[in-house]
TrEMBL record:
InterPro entries: CsbD (IPR008462), YjbJ_sf (IPR036629)
Membership in a protein family: Belongs to the UPF0337 (CsbD) family.
Origin superkingdom: Bacteria
Signal peptide (residue range): none
TM stretches of this protein: none
Protein name according to UniProt: Uncharacterized conserved protein YjbJ, UPF0337 family
Region described as Disordered: 1-57
Residue ranges of domain CsbD-like in the record: 5-57
Pfam families the UniProt entry points to: CsbD
Length: 57
């Protein structure tokens, strides 16, 4: 997994956590759910990159 991809995924995950927190604080379920979705997408990308790394070795 390239360092650039790790950084992008971490930023996306942190952005998702921020959206979720803002949604919780404001009572906006759409924003909260969007944040959770961003976090899930980031986790899937991380998993995909790890699988790629295994096959590169």
């Amino acid at each position: 997994m390239s360092t650039e991809d790790k950084i992008k995924n971490k930023i996306e995950n942190l952005g998702g956590k921020a959206k979720e927190a803002i949604g919780k604080a404001t009572g906006d379920n759409d924003t909260k759910n969007e944040g959770r979705g961003d976090q899930a997408k980031s986790s899937l990308k991380d998993a995909g990159e790890k699988v790629k790394d295994v096959f590169k070795k």
